# Entry
Amino acid sequence: MNFDQQLLASSKTRTACPIVPVSKANLGKNIKSLSPSGRQWSKANGFQAKPGEILVVPDVDGKPDMVLFGTGADDLDPFLAGKLSQTLPAGRYRLSNEFEQLEAMTLAFLLGGYGFDRYKTMVASKAILLCPEQVDRTDIIRIAQAVKLTRDLINTPANDMGPQELQDATYALAKRYKVKPRAIKGAALEKGFPMIHAVGRASSRPPRLLDFSWGNSGHPKVTLVGKGVVFDTGGLDIKPSNGMILMKKDMGGAANVLGLAQMIMDAKLPVRLRVLIPAVENSVGSDAFRPSDVLKSRKGLTVEVGNTDAEGRLVLADALALADDEKPELLIDMATLTGAARVALGPDLPPFYVDDDDIAADITECGTRACDPLWRMPYWRGYEAMLASKIADTNSIGGGGFGGSITAALFLNKFVEKATHHIHFDIYGWTPTAKPGKPYGGEAQGIRALYRFLSQRYQK
Ligand code: BES
Ligand code: MN
Ligand code: ZN
# Structure
């Protein structure tokens, strides 16, 4: 069942089983208002109105008559509705108008039904929701489809998601929206994109830089750059097995950028969009770049490689330098860039960096409203000194183990000069422990917030 079938256009003539909120405070009253058998049923099942607790109350024929949805004692987390699509038996349902955040609940319902079924069949959700009348159905489906694209790309292991396959996905998206993508590949990168080449050259699957533009060239320029490291072994500074096991997700920045681009194009936002993805595999091989190598970047800055496991910032730097040439109004990059970001904020709260306070406040607010939380961190110039190199213009890492997400952001920012605003997202791209609406595995982070932010900044 696709989202179009799972979320029916609302219509007064359609019958559907109501899902009603039951708070701890109203538990007694709500239960009393049920039919005698319903009252017994809820007692027998020990329904307590805990947040997200679901009880299907049957009619005399045993068919779902109503669904009680616990809202607890405090404000309801609307993503708890993600449990509904997995729990409810086949049938048609509608959310009661008494719920406060119908939009987020509807989205969570769709996102909670996600399963990555490329390699085995998953138990598909059979519950169908009538779209609440207040909710923009087209927009919710657009967002759900973008999240699915992002999750699918991240969940696909590197043997089926190499630089070529990431290119195929990028090309498929560009072509769907009638624009011509291009790729610079292998040895052709050596001259113009030396750091993308250096990081990707040890793999038998050649590196490339993917590039497409969409939209009216007179509209404000928004450029998205996504880290597309299809697998990160760490290179010669090889990762231990527990650090490598999840590294198929190191193209999470690219996957998120593609999801966001799909929403922007589908909604026809009045922007001139550009998408740039350095797609590489950070492999171990006799031709691998080495710690202490000095690379000459596209921008001209010489970069001493402090650690070959800090590969993301190298490939992004060359892509950012290209993006910067056309002076975009917003230059946004997304990357699974540092373990330090996860140490600081955990897997669910990605840090982002931007110099402009108003933009930072808007993005934070959009994140809250979209249930896509983000936390601003500083481009703290005082730490720039940590990037000093004795023999090159800059080192690639801060060293010393201090402020690793900040020094990585500062490194990237060296390659951006002309863009009006550079916004950097250090995402995790993964849900390690399933939560309602967020199944285990690849995750979209920041793009629902950004879609909201861009939609309101560039209203038609
Ligand atoms: N892809 C990793 C960062 C990462 C690791 C993100 C685990 C999410 C989970 C990145 O390429 C990396 O290895 N970064 C190093 C940088 C260090 C060598 C300066 C890190 O964070 O340890
Ligand atoms: Mn790495
Ligand atoms: Zn990496």
About this structure: The pocket of BES (ligand 1) is lined by residues 232, 250, 307, 309-312, 336-340, 342, 397, 404, 428 (CB under 6 Å). Residues 81 and 320 are 39 Å apart (CA to CA). The longest helix spans residues 137-155.
